[in-house]
Structures are given as C-alpha cells and as structure tokens.
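Run log, item B.
One chain of 190 residues. Sequence copied directly from the ordering sheet:
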Amino acid sequence: MTPIVRALLLINVAVFFLEQQLGDGFVEAFALWPLGANFSWWQILSCAFLHANVGHLFMNMFGLWMFGRKVETLLGAHRFLLLYLLSALTASIAQLLVSTAMAENMPTLGASGAVFGVLGAFALLFPQHTIMLLFPPIPMPARVFVLMYALFELFSGVYGTDAGVAHFAHLGGLAGGLFIVWHWRRSARG
C-alpha cells in the first residue's frame, strides 16, 4: 500500500463515519450544490470526501486502491496527491457547469471524479496493462478499458440513464487526470 492511497482511504472512511454521526446537516454543508443559495466555495473539494452509502464508498475506494497504487508508485506521493485533488477539482467544475446549465438543485458527493482522474492517469502511464472485466470476463488493455468507460459515461450523461449519478463529474475528473499526466510527461520531455 502506498502512503497517499492509504491516507486517502482512511480519510474517506473516517469522513463517512462522521457523516453517519452528524447526519444530513453535515452532508448538506459539504456536498457540492449547484451555483446559488446552497453553494459554498469549499464544496468544490469537500464533496470528494463524502459518500451516499457504504456501496458508493466501497466502489470508489476499491478503484482508488486498484489503480492508485501503481500510479502513485510511478509518480511519487506529492504528484499523486496533486493528481487526485486536481481531478476532484475538474470533476466539480464539470458538475457545476452541467448542473447550472440544467437548472438542477441536487447536491453531488463522492470521490468518483478524483478516482476517474486516477484511472485516466493509469491508462496513460500503463496503456498496455491488461484489465480483466468481471462481467463479462474479457481482458483488455487499460487504454481500451478507459475509452469504453468514458464512452459509457458520456452516453449515460447525455441520455440520462442512471439517475442520480454525476456522469459529467466522472468525465471532468477523467479529463483532468489525463491532462495533468499529459502535461507532466510533455514537460519532462521538453
């Protein structure tokens, strides 16, 4: 286990237990609300540490654990933390743009956008690494997996499938992670 992945796992689990103790008022204060009466600037990052339920927390933390360890090992702790936080930021900005344009008034919460950024980084850094899907059990290179997942998220976001899922936040986090790693690689070459 790498240090930042471990710390993020522990922080997310601790915040989830805090949510359970403090209730709806805590979630309402720190979830990301569309621009307007309930919006506060800190929600842009605080929302990435909240989760709706145990399943939501588990899936995000599993993704972070699965892909984050290799990414952190290659990038180092400082850059990995920056990648994670900037991906959460780009996810929140994408969600704010979409929720404002759609005049939605529901809060967003979860580490999914940041995890999608880590997934994007994984695909750029380990494009040929084989990922085995569970259902159906099909092996594929990481870059193909991420492309298919992004297309699924785009389709789901445009056509409104999976109500209550912030598909555009996922895409925003993915775009942020891809851009950050692309920028770092480009800077290293030049």
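Observations after the first pass:
- Residues 77-101 form the longest helix (25 residues).
- The helical segments are 3-22, 24-30, 43-46, 54-75, 77-101, 112-125, 142-159, 167-189.
Flagged for discussion on Thursday.
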